[in-house]
Write a structure and sequence with these properties.
Elements: H1 3-21, H2 41-55, E1 64-68, H3 74-82, E2 87-92, H4 95-108, E3 114-118, E4 132-138, H5 147-157, E5 158-171, H6 180-193, H7 201-210, E6 214-220, H8 222-225, H9 227-237, H10 242-248, H11 250-268, E7 271-279
Parallel strand pairs: 1-2, 1-4, 2-3, 4-5
Antiparallel strand pairs: 5-7, 6-7
Helix pairs in contact: 5-7, 6-11, 9-11
Length: 282
């Protein structure tokens, strides 16, 4: 079974449980840059979108945007409401996520402006699907193996002067080289969450620069998001969620087990939460 099929199957199975537990935002929360701001976890997820838009220097006006790896389109709808004149496209490998996303679009009143499709990001075409003024990639690039090809695609899909804003899981920068324990933790995370090998934040930035992006800036927001994993683990330990976990099947149960490795990875520094902004040259 190839990687895309495993990712699709994982999210097809696990999405209903996440929606019942957390709602439509399928990403980390933001707790201030030091991670110490006290805020409800679902509000922190919305705060993450706003923090990324501000840090990422999102355009004041957007005619078209792409949410690359959109889940059920939580960020897509947020962007559609923030930019009421914009047309949006969200893509996900999961038909279950796409179907839920389209339903939520109608409920939010943006169904006529926001399309959500079950489609591989790498299959997008700049003439048929683009160009976009903003590409948003929230915790999806870790599933995409060839980072240079991904950055090249995003660069081609953007209008001149368009902006890329990305948040993704990474491993810590080298040197020093990753330790044996780092490799163990990262290997478990990648295996259980169906990820190709992770890259470091600097490598992500180098990939963007290599394909011609300008004003490439990266940062490490690990401290800002780390409290979210404690909340996710606690939700997994809540007996009220166990029936849904069992119904979701073995891959979701393994994903829940992987949370302990995420927690360990953040504690040891092996895993990092990287953010990137970049501009297509005019």
């Amino acid at each position: 079974m190839n990687l895309n099929t495993r990712i699709k199957d994982f999210y097809d199975a696990s999405t209903p449980l996440w929606l019942n537990t957390w709602g439509e935002q399928m990403h980390h929360g933001f707790y201030g840059q030091d991670g110490k701001r006290k805020v409800g976890h679902q509000q922190a997820q919305l705060d993450m979108i706003e923090a990324m838009l501000e840090w990422g220097q999102a355009p004041a006006r957007v005619r078209r945007f792409l949410d690359a790896g959109c889940g059920v389109g939580g960020s897509s709808r947020y962007l559609a409401l923030k930019y009421p004149a914009a047309l949006g496209l969200g893509v996900t490998l999961s038909p279950v996520q796409a179907q839920n996303g389209r339903k939520y679009n109608e409920e939010a009143g943006v169904g006529d402006r926001l399309a959500i499709r079950a489609q591989d990001v790498y299959s997008l075409d700049e003439e048929e699907d683009g160009p976009f003024d903003l590409i948003w990639s929230m915790e999806s690039a870790e599933h995409m193996e060839d980072k240079v090809a991904l950055m090249d695609l995003f660069n081609r899909l953007l209008n001149p002067g368009g902006q890329l804003i990305m948040a993704t899981w990474c491993h810590r920068p080298e040197p020093p080289m990753l330790t044996k324990n780092d490799h163990r933790v990262l290997g478990k995370i990648c295996d259980l969450y169906h990820l190709p090998p992770l890259v470091s934040v600097p490598v992500l930035g180098e990939a963007a620069t290599q394909v011609g992006f300008t004003d490439v800036v990266t940062d490490d927001w690990s401290a800002a998001v780390e409290p979210f994993w404690g909340a996710v683990i606690n939700s997994g330990l809540d007996p009220r969620n166990w029936p849904g976990l069992i119904r979701a099947g073995s891959s979701t149960i393994k994903g829940a087990w992987a949370m302990k490795y995420m927690k360990e990875g953040f504690r040891t520094g092996a895993i990092r939460y990287g953010v990137l902004r970049a501009t297509k040259s005019k």
